[in-house]
Amino acid sequence: MPMSSKRELMPNSSNVLRHMENHFALTTCEDIKNIMQPLLIKHGMTVFNYYRIYFDSTVIRLSTDQKWTEHYFKMNYLETLTIPESYLKKPLNYYLWLTDDCPLMLQDAAINFDMANGISIAKINHDSIEYFCFASTRDNTSIVNNFYLNNLDVLEQYSLYFKDQFNSIISQFEKNKIILPYNATCCQSNKINKEIKRSLLSPRQKDCAKLLLQGMSYKEIGKILQLSARTVETHVNQLKTKLGCDNKAELILQLNGMITR
């Protein structure tokens, strides 16, 4: 389905469904369900949700459950999206759904849509965080210990399978992302961006970055770190790639405020 080049803005009003009715977030639910449901039911799971929260305060959201998705937008739950700092420690993070995290939304999902006992995988990218969310029914409390905790590799495989199967849809959605409302979470996006990027750097890359910010040459950095100038240059080039910089000047601008000298 062709998509407009204009990004969709999520309005804070009751007409949200009318605004979203032809959006990929809703129109793709049935296709995603047809592909993912056979994998889910094998292990007692019932729902799969996918989010990609970008650091520019935009988001992609896809799901197997159209009714929940419609309700999700109607209730403006998109505004509750957060990126807790605990999820920024490692490139890949796992967390169980707890009622103290977005309690109203999780209670609503459990009581009115029988969607509970979930687990999410949070994957850090250079421009975003991806969430792969799996859930079951309200009474299936045993799935946490009996399946999730012992089969994280299976959940990762299903997440990769989803990305592979729906790569074209995700690519089209990226051209028409939903804009998050301007709220406290969005105001922290720059801080979050820096935290994410810093977490992607290796200890040696951080060492090179600190000395680079002090104006040292590759040779001077190498002498302090007991590395060859060529090795230092390799680390700096890796820093450019991770931080999306085309040259050394851009890299130094990115590192300022991100690295403690």
Structure write-up:
This protein is an alpha+beta fold and 261 residues long. The chain folds into two domains: 8-189, Beta-Lactamase (2-Layer Sandwich), CATH 3.30.450; 201-255, Winged helix-like DNA-binding domain superfamily/Winged helix DNA-binding domain (Arc Repressor Mutant, subunit A, Orthogonal Bundle). The chain has helices at residues 16-20, 24-27, 29-41, 66-74, 103-113, 143-146, 152-165, 167-174, 184-187, 189-199, 203-212, 218-225, 229-243, 248-255; strands spanning 8-9, 47-54, 58-63, 92-96, 116-124, 128-136, 178-179.
Can you identify the CATH class of the largest domain?
Alpha Beta
Beta-strand fraction estimate:
15-25%
The structure class reads: alpha+beta
**Portion in helices:** 40-55%
Give the strand order, joined by hyphens, for the main sheet. 1-7-3-2-6-5-4
Please identify the oligomeric state: single chain
Count of DSSP strands: 7
Largest sheet: 7 strands, mixed
Mean pLDDT across all residues, rounded?
A: 81
Judging from the principal axes of the Cα atoms, what is the shape? elongated
Radius of gyration: 21 Å
CATH architecture of the largest domain: 2-Layer Sandwich
The CATH topology of the largest domain turns out to be Beta-Lactamase
Alpha-carbon distance between the two ends: 50 Å
Order of helices and strands, N to C?
A: EHHHEEHEHEEHHHEHHHHHH
CATH homologous superfamily placement of the largest domain? Transcription factor LuxR-like, autoinducer-binding domain
Number of domains: 2
Keywords: DNA-binding, Transcription, Transcription regulation
InterPro entries: Sig_transdc_resp-reg_C-effctor, TF_LuxR_autoind-bd_dom_sf, Tscrpt_reg_LuxR_C, WH-like_DNA-bd_sf
Pfam family, one: GerE
Protein name: LuxR family transcriptional regulator
